[in-house]
Each structure stands twice: as C-alpha cells, then as structure tokens.
Protein 1
Amino acid sequence: MAVTTLPAQRTLDVPAVLKECGLAAFVAFALAAPMVGLETLPLTGGLGINTRFGAVAYAAVLVFFGRLGFALLRAGYPVPVLIASLVFAAVLISLLLTGADQILPFKSLILNWFIALLAVVITVRAAWALHRPTAEMAARERENVMDRVGIAVLRGARWLGPLAIAVAIALPFLPFADRRFLDLAILVMTYVMLGWGLNIVVGLAGLLDLGYVAFYAVGAYSFALLALHFDLGFWVSLPLAGLMAAGAGVLLGFPVLRLRGDYLAIVTLGFGEMIRIILVNWYSFTNGPDGLSGIPRPSFFGFPFTRRPAEGTMSFHQLFDVDFASIQRIIFLYYVILVLALVTNMFTLRLRKLPLGRAWEALREDEVACRSLGINPTNTKLTAFGIGAMFAGIAGSFFATRQGFISPESFTFIESAIILSIVVLGGMGSQIGVVVAAILLIGMPEWFRELGQFRMLAFGAGMVLIMIWRPRGLLAHRDPTIRLNRDGDFEAPG
Amino acid sequence: MSADATTVTAGDAALLRVEHLTIRFGGLIAVDDLSFAAQDREITALIGPNGAGKTTVFNCLTGFYKPSVGRFVLNLADGPRYLERMEGFDIARAGVARTFQNIRLFTGMSVLENLLAAQHNKLMRASFFALAGLLNLRSYRRAEAEAVELARYWLDRIGLSDRADINAGNLPYGDQRRLEIARAMCIEPVLLCLDEPAAGLNVRESAELNALLAYIRDEHRIALLLIEHDMSVVMEISDHVVVLDYGKQISAGSPAEVRKDPAVIRAYLGEEEDAELPPIIEKDLGEGS
C-alpha cells in the first residue's frame, strides 16, 4: 500500500483491511465499554451497576462492518458493500417501522434511526461508486461541493431570506406549534440574535471574544433593575439596557483592544467571569446568588397579558375581544424576539456595506495595513465591540422579561462558548449560517432529550463531524459587499 | 557633516525634510544622524546594502517606531506637520501613504473593497459615522459613487478593472504589488513611500512599474520616496538618490553622480580601493543613463 491505489485497479490487501477494521472496532469498544457498558442505578441505600455488554458488542460489530464497507469501497469492490448495506438498512428500517425494534440491542429510537441512516449513506456511496467507478470523492472535491452549496445558499439568500422570514412569521399558527415548541423557538431565536450580535465582533472585526455572555448579563440585569426600581416599562427599559451593555462593551474595550488574538481572548474570558462574580457578590445591588425575581412581563404596548387586569386598565384579550389564553403571551414574546433578531440582522447587513463595516473586515485581514491607510484601529474595534455588546444587552433584556427571574447562574462561561460555537460552526461572518447553526446546536439537543445523559455526547459528536467536514464552518463563503462589474458572476472556487 | 547641512538648507521648501534622524534599538544604532529631503514631483530613492537601515527609516516615518533623535517635517499648504509626534493612522491622514516590503493587502476582500477601505476616512465623514449610510441618504450614495469612481480610475491605470470583484489574495504576485500601490494612492497622498516595489517582479513587470511610478509623479504631482534594491528601477526613474550604509548617509545626488561616487562603490563592492566594477554591475548601474 506504499503506492497510492488507482481506483480502477482492484487491490485488496486483506490483512491490512482487517487490521484497519479491527482497530476501528477496538477504539469503538474502548470508548463504549465504560460509557455504554456500565450504567449506574440508584438503589435503596446506594448505587448499583447495570451492565449492558450486549450493546457494547453490537456497537463494536457495527463499527467493524461499517469500516469494512468503506475499505472495500476504496479498494474497488462496491457490489458486496451495496448488497450488504442495502439488506442491513432494509431489515433495520422494517424493524423500526413495524415497531419490532425492541429486539435490537439499542433501545433508543433516535439512535436506531441514526444507524439506519448511516447504512443508507453507505448504500448510496456504494451505488455511486458502481455508477462511476473512478469517483472516489476526494476530500478536496467534497470541500468544493460544500463550497458550492455555500455559494448557492448565499445566492439564494434573495429568496431564501424572505422565505425563512415568512416561515418564521407563520410559525406560531402552524398546527404542531404547541407551547413547548414555541418555547423552544423563542430559545433558538434568542441564540440567533446573540449569534448575529457576536458575528459583528468575531465574524466581521475578527476579535475573538470569549466573554460575550458578560454583555448579555449586563443587559439582563440593567433591564431587571431599571424595571424593578424605576418602574420603567418594557419598551423604555429595552433600549436603555442595550445602551448600558454597549457602554460596558466600550468600557472593557478601551483598555483591552490593544491586545491581539489569544491575549484578547483570554482577557475577554476573564471579563466574562468577572461580571458573573460581581453579580454573585454584590449582594446589596444584584441580590447575589438569590437572583432578581418579579421582573415585569412585557405588555402589548401597555395592555398586559392577564386574565383580570388591574382596575381601570385593559388587558390584551379584552382589547381584541378574544378569549384569554396563556399562549397569547408566548406568541407575543416570540414575535418580539423575532423582530429584535431581524433588526440585528438588517443592521449588520447594512453596516457591512458601509465604510465602518469595511473597516472592520479590513482590520480582521491586516491591522498594520489599516493603520497605514489612516484607519484608527482602536476606535474601529471599539465600535464593533460596542455594537456587538448592545445587541447582547437587548437580547439579555428579552431574556430577563421572558424568564421573570434572573440569577448569575444563567450567565456562565458555557453560554459564551455556545454562542461562539454557533458563529464558528455557521461559518464566520455568514448570517444564514448562524441561523442554521443555532437550530442545530440549540434545537438538536432538545430533540435528543430522549438520549438522556448521552445528549451532550451526541452534541459533541455532531460538532466534531462538522469540524471534519467543514473546518471553515457550514456556510462559509464571503461575497464582495460592492461590485464594479455588474455581471454578478461568482468567481470559480480556488 | 557639511554635505548634510547643504542638503538640509537646499531642502527648505521640500515637501518632506528628514532632519538628523537617529534610531537606536538598545545599543544598536540602526540609523545615525540621517538628513535628507524629498521634493514635490520628484522620485527620491533610498538605497543601500542589506541591513543599511532603509526600512527602519520608513517604519519610523510612517509611525511604527519613534525616532531616538531628529524629526520629520512635512510641509503642507496649511503649515508644517511634525510626523514623529503623530500616531501611524494620523500620519496617513496627513497624506503619507506607504506600501510594504512583503505585500499587505486585505487578501480576503475583493480588489474594489481594498481600494474603498483606503478611502475610509473620507467615506466615514460622508456617511456621518455610518448614520447617513444606515439611512441611505443621497449625500452618502453620492460620496460612495465618487469613491468607486476613484477606485475605477486606479484600476484602469493598473489594468485590473475586469478583475475588480475577485479576492485580492487570488491575484498574481505582480498585480498584488501594483494593487498595493493603487490602494496607497486612493488615500490621495502628498507623499507616497514605496518599500521595494520591484522585489520579485520580472523584467516586464518591472518596466510597467517604472511607467506607473513616473505617471504618478508627472500626473499627480506628488513626491515619491522609494527604497529599492533593483538598480535598473533606481537609476532609470529616480530624480534624487540617497545612499545609506550602516545607518549613515554616505552619498546623495543625482543617479549619475551617485553611480560614480567611490564611497558608494566601496559600500556595494567591499573595501578594496580602486576596485574595478565587475561588468555585470557596470551594466546594471549603467542601464539608467
């Protein structure tokens, strides 16, 4: 195997293939034995252990044959792979459809469907190899395919964007949109907004900010304290909280934006933690770890969502003369966050085409060159930091009013990490990428709740897969913000 | 020292006067009491062997280092500016543009965007710090159209108009060099500083570069300050040459004078007195005349 095998030649080095498959199966076994094989059970008076070695063996066997399938495909034997994977997929899917899947070693429905999906993928690849014997898709070629998808999505943004907005507007009235679904949609939308806000800082200006949640916290606490102490309404507190978060961003940015790259990341990480620790310890101001409760709910421009409004006021359902239903408030919240997120998006899209946005991107590319062109790096970075922080603050106020209760627990480092993951996985600077990544990263773990304690494992596996297949993010493709030649042709990748 | 004094007095009306510039890094004296002037509508070349301190002078002039002693006087219509007291980006705003020895384009942005980023300050004022731009007011749209026109003018000059929308990083090396010059010109400078613009160019590209630099001098009537190793470029287009060795000025004058100066020949070819020029160098130096 020293010489690269030509695809047309049939060379099957049996010991090497068996060694490769055995190794893959061994790794799977070593990983699965402790994580899947042993389960702790709460017993009366202690912990018990439940062993599931059948499932471990099943996993190792699956990995062995899966790897064998890929090895045979590579060596130019698509037919046996096609037949075997087709039979396996057919059996598995029929078992799942007839509800007889309880005889399988894995009891989880999602997991079994996932295995069936993998079998289908191998089948398709085998069929593809049969169809075009030389078409073992090189990694580079696959990258190009995904690049073209990225370009197509960007090109399609003209109709894809309005379509997505239309779907988002219609969402609460779709038949399957129950309370739980809408709560999830609000959560996803909050992260979309945070992702769009952070995209200004990380994606456009190229400043790695690991403490973005600090501004989210500043916004949430500003909103809560303004509402509780000064009795300001939702629509007054919201912009004020945004401004205060922007002020915090500028205040932090002033000393630290001289730093670059890793150093900036560490300082912002520290700042994120500092804010949280201040919130915990400044008891007289923030109520410490007990948090702030009784934050007023948003009203429909002065008409509250209550069954019985206070004397002399009118509530939402009376205003529109409909029956009271608690879902009305949820739907309203959903629309509020939708509008806030869309404003963030439009603001960013517009700024990208303005000199300020171009200076951000130029700064990301080369700070020394920017300086030599008369761009003040510190001020330009400060605006990016401040505007990014402002949107985080507004999202934070929304969070506060939706929950009605905030405590420092909600603003831990993991939140910063998730928001940053959304931006990076979506493809830095890509607005649609943020939406896709937010749905995947926030929505998927909710759908995977069935996996119980393995939920976050699936999350991690998904991130690893995306990083293998799309190291630059799902939809990473940048189009010029302005064109000289109006032919609209996209340059060939590469 | 008398040579220095005459240079300074002769350059009183010059656009840029470098006066008694000394740059020390710890114990190392990189530039030692250097004085020269760059005249309007002239190409001044700064030459010297490797490590003579040429790029250090440039970095100091454009604000990346501060001089230990000495000053830079930029004579503008509304009074002199003392560059050594200013931040790098303020020096650029005063009208000193530069290019870099290793090209520094915004490689991930399109060619046109590179040229618009150079007009940042003008457009920021026109867009009222992005406010007018956000509202898409007509005043901003007109300013942007003008900026695109200036970019188009320079793209036509360097022959990149049809490739204006591709990423700058995807251009061939020679085009990147010329794009960097065009980008520097887009800040509408009074002084353009070029750090080895001919490095890595082939003969044809080098000739195109000469034509471009001469065009900038003659049509845009600005001063050019040039660091160069390529003698054919220096001798052909320079109006005034300053020769540095070990941070000291060893000669100055027209290309023809400098070429004959024994001190220069010594610096380039070694210490041996009365050394004959090897034919290849003779040819190189002679190409300009």
Protein 2
Amino acid sequence: MLMCRDLARIGSDYIDGQLSTADNFSVKMHLLMCRHCRSFIGNLRESAQLMKGHADYHLYEEYLRRLESSIDEALKG
Amino acid sequence: MALPTERITDDSNLVSALQAGDQQAFHQAVREFSPGMLAVARYYLDPSSAEDVVQETWVNVVEAVKKFEGRSGLKTWLHRIVANRCKNRLRTANREVSSEFGEALEPGIASRFESGGRWATPPRLRLEEHAELLMENGALNDCLDKHLSALPEQQRSAVMLYEAHQHKAEDVCNILDISASNLRVLVHRARQKIYLMVEDFQETGEC
C-alpha cells in the first residue's frame, strides 16, 4: 500500500503526468483518503507555478551590452 | 534619429532576420535568449567561464544561424550549442561535471514522517488557496528570488530550463547530459525547497 512518504517522493512525477497508469491510480486513491497528502500535492503544484515566473537569471546591463558589442563586431565581419 | 524597431514576436521571422544579419534582431535575441543560455553554461562551468562561453556562442551564431534549418526551435538550438561548447571546454581541461543527485526527498520534508511512513508533521498550509495573494506579495517575491539564487547550480539550471523556459524533459536531459530520473530528482528537490520556504515565510513573515 502506498504510504504518505512514498507519495511525497513521487509528488512531482504525479503533477507532471510522469507516472504509469497503475501508480497514477494508486496516488489518486491515496489522495481521496488523505487530506494531508492533498495539501502536499497542492502546495508542490503551487511551488512549481511560483518557480515558473521566477527561476531565471537577471542579467546585468553591462554584460548584455558586452554581448551586443561582440555581435556588432562579428556582423561587421 | 533612428525609428524604434518593433519587437519580432514570431520565431521564424526572428530566424529570418538573424539570417539576414539584422543587428536589431540580434540585440533582441541576446536579451531574450541569454538568460537561458547562461543557465546551461552555469550547469557545466564557473560563473565567469560561463559568461565567456555565452559570448563566444553569440559570435559563432552570427555565421552559424545562416545554416539553421529549423529542425528544433531556435532556443533549443542555442542551448545545445552552448552545452557543446561547455563540454568541449571541460574535455580540453580534462574535467567532468561532478554529479550528486541524491535522495528524492528534501531533508526538511523527509523528517516530517513517522517511521511507518505517515505524516508526523503534516503540511501546515494550503498554498493553492493563497496563490494569487502570494504572487502579489513583494516581500515573498524577493524571498523567492533569494532562495532560487541559493539553489545548487545543477538544480537551478535544471529548474530554469524545465520550469521557466518550458523545455520538454527530453530536451533538458539532452542539453544537460543527464538521465530522465536524475532530472526528476533535481526538479522535485527544488520544488520541495521552495515549498518549505513559502510555508516558513507564511508562518513567520521572515525570509
């Protein structure tokens, strides 16, 4: 039987639809019975959403200008 | 005075402009694609070498883009070039990326179960009920940036490519030279870290 800790290990696989049909069914059954795991999965899903909007490098202007200058030079041939 | 040029929104139009050597198109592409290219390079190299490789790649792309046939998207193509250049550097220096993927559970989550595997310290909040408020909270956004910057470099690169740049898992595995299961661990660990950070922030108001 799937325990809460097992579900926590594969939480992202469930969210991203990476589980086999049988494992996906086991997770769904567990979630029907366990409100803590429903919270965990909901929170993990929100964490992924938060990262989508934030997980990027903010490049400093000086570096971007350096990249543009080297391209300009290369374009001149 | 030069008229401001419009941003090219379509990938194939951008490729055509790059192939025609349009300077403005290159400047747009630099700002759009360099963060992701740097994420790839930082996976393999130290920050300074990573910046150098991204710069070398752009210089190389000025000519190489003329042969771009569109078999993959422009972003994926650029990321692959950066990855190959990084791997060549490592090969020349006779070095390898040290890979430590570890357990699927973050220690902060793993310690919250009793020995039988049930929750001993269950999730304290339901973030989904607060999602919109969370996104509007400036202090939380700052805290999120801080924690994302503090992720181990490999986790951060994987998360950036998978979550922020919306690459398919298969593409991330190719670019970073890792197996699908290792990518799953990197992404899952990063999500748990952010989850624990938000939970803590919601409870204490501190980052």
